[in-house]
Hints:
Number of helices of chain B: 10
Strand content of chain B: 25-35%
Number of domains of chain A: 1
Largest sheet of chain A: none
Shape of chain B: elongated
Distance between the termini of chain A: 26 Å
CATH superfamily of the largest domain in chain B: P-loop containing nucleotide triphosphate hydrolases
Oligomer: heterodimer
Helix content of chain A: over 70%
Mean pLDDT of chain B: 88
Helix content of chain B: 25-40%
Bound molecules: adenosine-5'-triphosphate, magnesium ion
Structural class of chain A: mainly alpha
Largest interface: A-B, 27 and 35 residues
Distance between the termini of chain B: 33 Å
Radius of gyration of chain B: 25 Å
Low-confidence stretches of chain A: none
Strand content of chain A: under 5%
CATH topology of the largest domain in chain B: Rossmann fold
Structural class of chain B: alpha/beta
Order of helices and strands of chain B: EEEHEEHEHHHEHEHEEHEEEHEH
Strand order of the largest sheet of chain B: 6-7-8-3-9-10
Largest sheet of chain B: 6 strands, mixed
Amino acid sequence: MNLHAVKSIYYFEMARAWRTLFQSLISPVISTCLYFIVFGSAIGSRINDIDGVSYGAFIVPGLIMLSLLTESISNASFGIYLPRFTGTIYEVLSAPVSHVEITIGYVGAAASKSVVLGCIILATAGLFVPIEIAHPLWMLAFMILTAVSFSLFGFIIGIWADGFERLQIIPLVIVTPLAFLGGTFYSIDMLPPMWRTITLFNPVVYLVSGFRWSFYENADVDVALSLAMIGLFLTACMITVSWIFKTGYRLKP
Amino acid sequence: MDDAISIRQLSKRYDSGFEALKHVDLDIRRGEIFALLGPNGAGKTTLIGCVCGIVRPTGGTIVVNGHDAATAYRQTRAEIGLVPQELTTDAFETVWNTVTFSRGLFGKPRDDAHIRRTLESLSLLDKRDDRIMSLSGGMKRRLLIAKALSHEPSILFLDEPTAGVDVELRQEMWRIVRELRRAGVTIILTTHYIEEAEEMADRVGVINHGELILVEEKTELMHKLGKKQMSLELTEQLQSIPDALNRYQLELIDDGNVLVYTYDTHGARTGITPLLQELNEAGIRFRDIHTTQSTLEDIFVSLVKSPP
Ligand SMILES: Nc1ncnc2c1ncn2[C@@H]1O[C@H](COP(=O)(O)OP(=O)(O)OP(=O)(O)O)[C@@H](O)[C@H]1O
Ligand SMILES: [Mg+2]
């Protein structure tokens, strides 16, 4: 294992985030505050408690998941797309590093950033609503698993993309709708039966449900199922990444 | 094991179906400066890419310091530094950070003293805290060299190190390369500038259409193909060359005002003395003589122009 290389890539990526710290933090924090003001306080005050949890508190896990997903994807996709775009990727490709090490460096950095961001949003949410976390360790585990899986997914997008538009399109067209329809702002029990069934095909439902369980011990779907789904997604991404490196897809002509 | 790199039957066919390398065999000796010459699109960058792991070869083997580049890539790549053709840099990084990054990436523990020395030898030390985007093109080129040297490689690839570089900086680059060679680094450089190969290289390889058409000691090459021409400016115009002089294969140019004799500098006899004598006997007078030696450039052009 070329630990020096993994560390180099990781620190290099983290340093890039550090330089743009303000931008990377300010926009998710502001949008979270807005959600709380609009949904948590203004509208939420007229919505009944859901499963004994006030609406403001109910949406906290979903909102964190929302940021975690979008930030993981955008961090990781940008992190690998940028060197491809500028051409500096040549150095990584010519270095004595394995595929696994490259992936750990880039994906690890992207995931770390989104976990930090998730914690900051959690703290911000705490300013608006009282939050209690029933299973802090599970909460952290869900957060890290989600961050890693979706950073891996973003990494794949960053390798697949051959222009800045493509870099934006997947998060915008697929991930944001899935996240919004994934039970962030409602419990899927509140949906009519047909929609409930359709929703079960949305992977984000399992993430939000499991994550919410770690806070309030109530879940839309079984926690074990949530974990299994994340595991499935993670495995699929890992297989794709290993295929990418094996074939040199979009990395080596 | 005195070859630094040993390439056998290396082929590369790009996904487009284009054959950029066709069964290339090449040995690079330890400690030499090898110049790879070739016109645009000849396959120089592709060849380097295959050795460094940036391009996937479609056939053949590459052995670096006794290790197979495909299977033992950790050993081979750690030995190699690459300065790419394009000036690709992270604009927002500082000089120091980017060179430190390179060293770590190649698996070496941090060593500030080495990086300091490297930057110093490339006159970049006072720029170490500057952002890369504030550097000039020549400085960026030197920075790429510093990055390539950060992990103390024993083999250095320079892909057109002096492309778009002014005369002064080119001299500077040559000085750097010579210093590296003195330190024992094996250097492979590609170039369009023949004078560069002529000035620097121990051996020259010429590549065209993905085929290595010649590999030769530079001196040997110049020796072998080194023709000299003697031009005689005649005092009187000449209509045709007298038959008596046929065996000299003279050429009459400039409306019969200049007579050109081509001879081999390394032949046992150049034939100059008898020629001048016979010209005298034939009553052909001349007012000036000068000689020109064919350069590597002429050799190169004639090689590349000639049909495969
Ligand atoms: N990724 C690629 N896909 C398809 N063809 C390619 C690719 N890269 C290079 N080629 C082709 O392979 C040939 C050799 O290219 P290469 O870059 O090795 O040439 P070169 O000798 O370095 O030329 P130059 O002196 O212009 O740098 C060219 O015809 C080029 O068009
Ligand atoms: Mg080239």
